[in-house]
Specification:
Blueprint (H helix, E strand, L loop, with lengths): L3 E3 L16 E7 L1 H4 L6 E3 L5 E6 L5 E7 L8 E7 L15 E2 L5 E9 L4 E10 L8 E9 L6 E7 L4 E6 L3 E6 L10 E7 L6 E4 L5 E5 L7 E8 L13 E6 L13 E6 L5 E6 L4 E6 L5
Length: about 290
Protein backbone atom coordinates (compact mmCIF):
# COMPACT_ATOMS: atom_id res chain seq x y z
CA UNK A 1 0.00 0.00 0.00
CA UNK A 2 1.18 3.53 -0.66
CA UNK A 3 2.33 4.79 2.71
CA UNK A 4 2.64 8.08 4.47
CA UNK A 5 4.36 9.22 7.59
CA UNK A 6 2.50 11.65 9.83
CA UNK A 7 5.32 13.50 11.46
CA UNK A 8 5.28 16.75 13.38
CA UNK A 9 2.41 19.19 13.32
CA UNK A 10 3.13 22.89 13.37
CA UNK A 11 0.79 25.80 13.62
CA UNK A 12 2.32 27.75 10.78
CA UNK A 13 4.76 30.62 11.18
CA UNK A 14 4.95 34.34 11.24
CA UNK A 15 8.44 35.27 10.13
CA UNK A 16 10.19 36.23 6.89
CA UNK A 17 10.90 33.54 4.31
CA UNK A 18 14.19 31.72 4.79
CA UNK A 19 15.08 28.14 3.88
CA UNK A 20 16.85 27.75 7.23
CA UNK A 21 13.52 28.24 9.03
CA UNK A 22 11.70 25.28 7.46
CA UNK A 23 10.17 22.51 9.55
CA UNK A 24 9.76 19.03 7.98
CA UNK A 25 6.28 17.80 8.89
CA UNK A 26 5.14 14.94 6.63
CA UNK A 27 6.21 12.62 3.84
CA UNK A 28 4.50 10.39 1.29
CA UNK A 29 5.92 7.39 -0.56
CA UNK A 30 5.16 6.73 -4.25
CA UNK A 31 7.11 3.46 -4.34
CA UNK A 32 4.27 0.95 -4.51
CA UNK A 33 2.58 2.81 -7.38
CA UNK A 34 5.36 4.06 -9.65
CA UNK A 35 7.65 1.08 -9.04
CA UNK A 36 10.61 3.13 -10.24
CA UNK A 37 12.33 6.45 -9.70
CA UNK A 38 10.21 9.61 -9.79
CA UNK A 39 11.72 12.51 -11.69
CA UNK A 40 9.32 15.43 -11.88
CA UNK A 41 6.41 16.51 -9.73
CA UNK A 42 3.95 19.38 -9.34
CA UNK A 43 0.92 20.27 -7.23
CA UNK A 44 -2.11 21.84 -8.85
CA UNK A 45 -2.59 25.41 -7.63
CA UNK A 46 -5.61 24.42 -5.55
CA UNK A 47 -3.50 21.80 -3.75
CA UNK A 48 -5.95 18.98 -4.51
CA UNK A 49 -3.88 17.07 -7.09
CA UNK A 50 -0.26 16.02 -7.33
CA UNK A 51 1.36 14.80 -10.56
CA UNK A 52 4.60 12.86 -10.68
CA UNK A 53 6.52 11.37 -13.60
CA UNK A 54 8.45 8.17 -14.14
CA UNK A 55 10.72 7.34 -17.07
CA UNK A 56 11.11 3.63 -16.33
CA UNK A 57 8.75 0.83 -15.41
CA UNK A 58 5.29 2.03 -16.49
CA UNK A 59 6.28 5.36 -17.98
CA UNK A 60 4.17 8.47 -17.91
CA UNK A 61 2.44 10.87 -15.52
CA UNK A 62 0.89 9.52 -12.33
CA UNK A 63 -1.91 11.49 -10.70
CA UNK A 64 -2.64 11.53 -6.97
CA UNK A 65 -5.63 13.35 -5.46
CA UNK A 66 -5.65 14.97 -2.02
CA UNK A 67 -8.72 15.01 0.22
CA UNK A 68 -7.15 17.91 2.14
CA UNK A 69 -5.43 20.62 0.12
CA UNK A 70 -1.63 20.58 0.20
CA UNK A 71 -1.57 17.70 2.71
CA UNK A 72 0.65 14.86 1.53
CA UNK A 73 -0.88 12.48 4.07
CA UNK A 74 -4.23 12.75 2.30
CA UNK A 75 -2.94 11.75 -1.16
CA UNK A 76 -4.37 8.73 -2.94
CA UNK A 77 -3.55 7.28 -6.36
CA UNK A 78 -5.92 8.27 -9.16
CA UNK A 79 -4.36 6.96 -12.39
CA UNK A 80 -1.57 7.03 -14.95
CA UNK A 81 -1.44 8.66 -18.36
CA UNK A 82 1.25 6.87 -20.37
CA UNK A 83 0.72 8.75 -23.63
CA UNK A 84 3.08 11.31 -22.12
CA UNK A 85 5.96 8.88 -22.63
CA UNK A 86 8.56 7.75 -23.53
CA UNK A 87 10.00 9.88 -26.35
CA UNK A 88 8.29 13.00 -25.06
CA UNK A 89 10.22 12.84 -21.81
CA UNK A 90 13.89 13.45 -21.24
CA UNK A 91 15.23 10.66 -19.10
CA UNK A 92 15.84 11.74 -15.52
CA UNK A 93 14.21 15.18 -15.64
CA UNK A 94 10.68 15.55 -17.02
CA UNK A 95 9.55 18.97 -15.76
CA UNK A 96 5.75 19.30 -15.69
CA UNK A 97 3.34 22.12 -14.87
CA UNK A 98 -0.42 22.79 -14.79
CA UNK A 99 -2.49 25.98 -15.11
CA UNK A 100 -4.51 27.40 -12.22
CA UNK A 101 -7.80 26.26 -13.76
CA UNK A 102 -6.50 22.76 -14.53
CA UNK A 103 -7.20 23.07 -18.27
CA UNK A 104 -3.61 23.18 -19.55
CA UNK A 105 -0.82 20.77 -18.67
CA UNK A 106 2.81 21.17 -19.74
CA UNK A 107 5.41 18.44 -20.26
CA UNK A 108 8.87 18.59 -21.77
CA UNK A 109 9.70 17.56 -25.32
CA UNK A 110 12.90 16.47 -27.02
CA UNK A 111 12.68 15.84 -30.75
CA UNK A 112 15.58 14.04 -32.46
CA UNK A 113 16.23 14.84 -36.14
CA UNK A 114 19.05 12.35 -36.62
CA UNK A 115 21.87 14.63 -35.55
CA UNK A 116 20.59 16.90 -32.79
CA UNK A 117 17.67 17.55 -30.47
CA UNK A 118 15.07 20.29 -30.54
CA UNK A 119 14.14 20.82 -26.94
CA UNK A 120 11.25 22.60 -25.30
CA UNK A 121 7.77 21.95 -23.96
CA UNK A 122 4.37 20.64 -25.02
CA UNK A 123 1.13 22.14 -23.80
CA UNK A 124 -1.73 19.65 -23.49
CA UNK A 125 -5.44 20.44 -23.15
CA UNK A 126 -7.35 18.49 -20.49
CA UNK A 127 -11.01 18.06 -21.42
CA UNK A 128 -11.80 17.55 -17.74
CA UNK A 129 -9.85 20.05 -15.62
CA UNK A 130 -7.09 18.50 -13.48
CA UNK A 131 -7.74 15.00 -14.86
CA UNK A 132 -4.55 13.90 -16.61
CA UNK A 133 -6.30 10.92 -18.21
CA UNK A 134 -8.28 13.37 -20.39
CA UNK A 135 -5.19 14.92 -22.00
CA UNK A 136 -6.00 15.30 -25.68
CA UNK A 137 -4.60 17.72 -28.21
CA UNK A 138 -1.18 19.24 -27.71
CA UNK A 139 0.89 22.05 -29.18
CA UNK A 140 4.61 22.77 -29.26
CA UNK A 141 4.57 25.53 -26.67
CA UNK A 142 8.18 26.57 -26.13
CA UNK A 143 11.44 25.81 -27.95
CA UNK A 144 14.68 26.43 -26.12
CA UNK A 145 16.69 26.93 -29.30
CA UNK A 146 19.51 24.64 -28.27
CA UNK A 147 20.39 20.99 -27.82
CA UNK A 148 19.78 21.02 -24.07
CA UNK A 149 16.71 19.53 -22.46
CA UNK A 150 14.62 21.39 -19.94
CA UNK A 151 15.17 20.61 -16.29
CA UNK A 152 12.46 22.87 -14.89
CA UNK A 153 9.46 24.95 -15.95
CA UNK A 154 7.19 26.98 -13.67
CA UNK A 155 4.37 29.52 -14.02
CA UNK A 156 4.00 32.28 -11.43
CA UNK A 157 1.56 35.02 -10.48
CA UNK A 158 -1.50 33.45 -12.18
CA UNK A 159 0.30 32.83 -15.45
CA UNK A 160 2.04 36.22 -15.66
CA UNK A 161 5.59 34.83 -15.55
CA UNK A 162 6.99 31.71 -17.20
CA UNK A 163 10.38 30.41 -16.08
CA UNK A 164 12.37 27.69 -17.82
CA UNK A 165 15.71 26.16 -16.91
CA UNK A 166 17.73 24.15 -19.40
CA UNK A 167 21.12 22.53 -19.32
CA UNK A 168 22.66 22.69 -15.87
CA UNK A 169 22.34 26.40 -15.20
CA UNK A 170 20.76 28.33 -18.09
CA UNK A 171 17.58 30.21 -17.22
CA UNK A 172 14.99 32.41 -18.89
CA UNK A 173 12.02 34.26 -17.41
CA UNK A 174 9.22 35.59 -19.60
CA UNK A 175 6.80 38.35 -18.63
CA UNK A 176 3.46 37.38 -20.21
CA UNK A 177 0.71 39.96 -20.87
CA UNK A 178 -1.74 37.12 -21.58
CA UNK A 179 -1.85 34.51 -18.80
CA UNK A 180 -0.32 31.15 -19.75
CA UNK A 181 0.61 32.38 -23.23
CA UNK A 182 3.92 33.42 -24.79
CA UNK A 183 2.16 35.59 -27.36
CA UNK A 184 3.54 39.10 -26.88
CA UNK A 185 5.76 37.92 -24.03
CA UNK A 186 8.96 39.79 -23.27
CA UNK A 187 12.13 38.40 -21.70
CA UNK A 188 12.57 39.61 -18.12
CA UNK A 189 15.90 37.83 -17.60
CA UNK A 190 17.97 35.42 -19.64
CA UNK A 191 21.36 33.84 -19.17
CA UNK A 192 23.58 31.66 -17.10
CA UNK A 193 23.45 31.27 -13.35
CA UNK A 194 26.54 29.80 -11.78
CA UNK A 195 24.62 27.32 -9.63
CA UNK A 196 23.37 24.11 -11.25
CA UNK A 197 19.96 22.77 -10.26
CA UNK A 198 17.68 19.78 -10.79
CA UNK A 199 14.57 21.88 -10.17
CA UNK A 200 13.81 25.47 -9.17
CA UNK A 201 10.96 27.54 -7.77
CA UNK A 202 10.22 31.06 -6.55
CA UNK A 203 8.27 32.41 -3.61
CA UNK A 204 4.79 33.87 -4.33
CA UNK A 205 6.11 37.43 -4.19
CA UNK A 206 8.96 36.60 -6.58
CA UNK A 207 11.60 37.84 -4.15
CA UNK A 208 13.29 34.50 -3.39
CA UNK A 209 14.62 31.99 -5.88
CA UNK A 210 15.06 28.48 -4.48
CA UNK A 211 16.42 25.25 -5.91
CA UNK A 212 17.56 21.70 -5.27
CA UNK A 213 20.45 19.92 -6.95
CA UNK A 214 21.74 16.40 -7.40
CA UNK A 215 22.99 14.67 -4.27
CA UNK A 216 24.13 11.09 -3.75
CA UNK A 217 23.52 11.39 0.01
CA UNK A 218 20.65 9.19 1.17
CA UNK A 219 20.06 11.16 4.36
CA UNK A 220 20.20 14.88 3.55
CA UNK A 221 17.82 17.36 1.92
CA UNK A 222 19.61 20.57 0.90
CA UNK A 223 17.80 23.71 -0.22
CA UNK A 224 19.48 26.70 -1.87
CA UNK A 225 18.19 30.26 -2.22
CA UNK A 226 19.10 33.76 -3.26
CA UNK A 227 16.99 36.90 -2.77
CA UNK A 228 15.92 38.99 -5.77
CA UNK A 229 15.72 42.78 -5.47
CA UNK A 230 13.21 42.92 -8.36
CA UNK A 231 10.40 40.30 -8.31
CA UNK A 232 10.98 37.36 -10.67
CA UNK A 233 14.03 39.04 -12.27
CA UNK A 234 16.97 36.63 -11.90
CA UNK A 235 19.41 39.34 -13.00
CA UNK A 236 18.81 41.06 -9.65
CA UNK A 237 19.90 38.09 -7.53
CA UNK A 238 22.07 38.59 -4.48
CA UNK A 239 23.98 36.32 -2.09
CA UNK A 240 23.40 32.55 -2.28
CA UNK A 241 22.79 30.59 0.91
CA UNK A 242 21.92 26.96 1.59
CA UNK A 243 20.59 24.85 4.41
CA UNK A 244 20.48 21.08 4.91
CA UNK A 245 17.83 19.03 6.67
CA UNK A 246 18.28 15.39 7.56
CA UNK A 247 15.68 12.71 7.07
CA UNK A 248 16.87 11.49 10.48
CA UNK A 249 15.42 14.64 12.06
CA UNK A 250 11.97 13.21 11.34
CA UNK A 251 10.23 11.06 13.94
CA UNK A 252 9.56 8.37 11.32
CA UNK A 253 12.07 9.10 8.57
CA UNK A 254 11.82 7.72 5.03
CA UNK A 255 14.70 5.40 4.24
CA UNK A 256 16.10 7.48 1.37
CA UNK A 257 15.81 11.12 0.24
CA UNK A 258 18.59 11.00 -2.35
CA UNK A 259 18.68 12.92 -5.64
CA UNK A 260 15.94 15.57 -5.52
CA UNK A 261 14.09 16.33 -8.74
CA UNK A 262 11.25 18.48 -7.46
CA UNK A 263 10.81 21.62 -5.38
CA UNK A 264 7.65 23.68 -4.98
CA UNK A 265 6.30 26.39 -2.69
CA UNK A 266 2.56 26.69 -2.13
CA UNK A 267 0.83 29.85 -3.45
CA UNK A 268 0.44 31.28 0.05
CA UNK A 269 4.09 30.56 0.84
CA UNK A 270 3.37 28.49 3.94
CA UNK A 271 4.42 25.08 2.57
CA UNK A 272 7.46 23.80 0.66
CA UNK A 273 7.85 20.39 -0.98
CA UNK A 274 10.91 18.29 -1.79
CA UNK A 275 10.61 15.34 -4.21
CA UNK A 276 13.32 12.68 -3.96
CA UNK A 277 13.83 10.76 -7.19
CA UNK A 278 15.63 7.72 -5.83
CA UNK A 279 13.73 7.73 -2.54
CA UNK A 280 10.39 8.04 -4.42
CA UNK A 281 9.14 10.22 -1.60
CA UNK A 282 7.55 13.67 -1.31
CA UNK A 283 8.50 15.58 1.85
CA UNK A 284 6.31 18.42 3.12
CA UNK A 285 7.77 21.36 5.04
CA UNK A 286 6.22 24.22 6.95
CA UNK A 287 8.09 27.34 5.80
CA UNK A 288 7.17 29.21 9.00
CA UNK A 289 6.76 32.29 6.82
CA UNK A 290 3.98 34.75 6.08
CA UNK A 291 3.60 36.70 2.83
Amino acid sequence: MVGFQNLISTGGGGGPFDISNFTPINSYSFSSVTGSDTYGGIWSTNGLHYYVTSSSGTKGVYQFDASTAWDVTSLSYSGNYNELSPTQFIANHQPIEISNDGVYFWSDRRDWNGSSFTCGTFRWTLSTPYDISTAGSRINFYTSGNNQGLLSQKWYNDGSYYHVQYGANMHRVFSCPTPYSLTGATTLSNGQITQSANDVTMTPDGLFYCWVDYSSNNDNMTFYQFPLTTPFDLDTRTTTTNFTYSRLDLPSPPSNVRNPHGIQISPDGTKAYYLSSNGRVLVEFDTNAVF
